[in-house]
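Chain A, query sequence.
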Amino acid sequence: MKKSWMLLLLIYSFCPAQEIALLKYSGGGDWYANPTSLPNLIKFSNQNINTRIKMKPGVVEPSSPDLLSYPFVHMTGHGNVVFSDSDVINLRNYLTSGGFLHIDDNYGMDEFIRKEIKKIMPNADLVELPASHPIFQKPYPFPGGIPKIHEHDGKRPQAFGIFVEQRLVLLYTYETDLGDGWEDAEVHHDPAEVRLKALKMGANILNYIFNN
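Chain A, predicted structure.
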């Protein structure tokens, strides 16, 4: 298993440009929310941390064999999520073979996605990442851990992870709404400093994936 994900990372390192993707899931939730977020994150990362990511992200379904082509897959939305048996098997294979899934609750996903994560990784628990975790350290320091971008229920922002052989393979960000902060300025009218904070945290996630 370890050899397989190392091989995937080796392949990615020799590619002239990586491609990341948005997860198109079933269940009725709006998987397509925040259409400008990934392009803006890609642009910021390519300009500031020397990533080489294709500007147009892909769209991939959980059961598609194409899932294994992407080192990073982003998932967001506000509502219900349902993974079929084939989705679960393919996502588990993806995560244990070198892939990375970032799930960003856009408000309203939490009660649904936690059950689906457990289906994918039944023997692993979501654990809250401490502020000392490397994903918060570079290239931009976040000494307090995951930043708060949008206020919803007055709860503190949290970042949870699933680990396979000590490798973080799934990141679930809750009560932060990073994706809203990545969107075009006119969408949510966030102050420039808030958007920059969100983009920097997103760049940290990509940096962690491509350099660990």
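The chain has a mean pLDDT of 91. The chain has one domain: 2-211.
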